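Q: Predict the bound structure with pyridoxal-5'-phosphate.
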Amino acid sequence: MTRDRSAAVLKLLRPSVQALPLYDPGADPEQVAQHCAGQPLLKLSNNENPLGVAPAALAVLRDYRPELLGLYPDPACLALRHALGERLDTHPSQLIIGNGSENLLELLCLAFLDPGDRVVTQSPCFGLHEIFPLMMAAQVTKVAPHPDFSCNLGAWRSALAGPSKMLLISNPSNPLGTIFDQQALAQLIGAAASDTLLVIDEAYYEYACADPDFPEVLGLLRAQHRPWIVLRTFSKAYGLAGLRVGYGIASDASLVAALDRVRTPYNINQLAQQAALAALGDQQHVARSRAFAAQVRAPMIEALGAAGFQVAPSRTHFLFIDTGVDAQEVNRRLLAQAMIIKAWREPGYETCIRMTLAQPDDNARFLAGLQQAVQALR
Ligand SMILES: *Cc1c(COP(=O)(O)O)cnc(C)c1O
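A: Predicted complex:
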């Protein structure tokens, strides 16, 4: 009976959805905690902010009048778009808010990709940069970095030589944490045909934006006579991952209008709109988060290097580490010690893991666990 039904579902399903790889959110913290009773849980798998929620957002959430939950939220997110517009010196008509920036990635794919369209992205990549295009039956071309994780411009040039509908990159990169600097990004954009939509996912912008070589992406793109969109989020440096708010800064209002056509009207709930607005005003939290990352990152990269691991030169609050052994096995051993990381599955990176930087004690516990796991597996 169930088998008949599932066969019927498969028969109805679009072939591109049937073949779709699953997004890997990492192990479930509750399950891990249950299996490791007594050991404190260390969740280093999702790039959440180790400093937590922006205090200004917490205050708004505490004062929230729950009666308001009976009303629909503002479908246009006007207050938030106006505040963002002022901060970014951008007209609100060029701004769109998403239920997380993931939602905006989805809308971009829904609105722009036909079956067979080519999307050029990087490898290793953020899962949804591949999954959403494949959902639309688009073709995904992935460009790998050099073995030292630096940008392989020649490979980008050849990937972008043919027709492509969309260039989709994260800068800083998830999972590498590395950046395309001003020059590399300018060259990349120059290599893309003028009818290629440029999507620059800056989920970790706040961590790298103070670095002198990090690109002024809006200046760079505004000089381009072509459509583009930059995606940012409240999930990382602002610490609001649980509320789901991201935003897009678009080349022009027509791009926002195009995405509005495929957007569910009330995609940002009321609490999230208000908390994001408050968080935006809490730049102290952002600065603290950036400083914390910089402070714990350097010693951790050094310690991992001294222990013989190759680590990508991260500008963010997470590290991509080549363990030299099967990452899934490393993952299992760390899970047994109540530590959750992300084991990479992409071809060519099966020995790599990504970990979110935490407090120094926790980073040290992770390093000890990693060394133990790798020694046992070698
Ligand atoms: C975390 C992340 C996102 C998702 O952010 P949300 O706003 O929480 O949806 C998008 N892109 C990249 C590259 C990320 O790492």
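A: Residues 79 and 314 are 34 Å apart (CA to CA).
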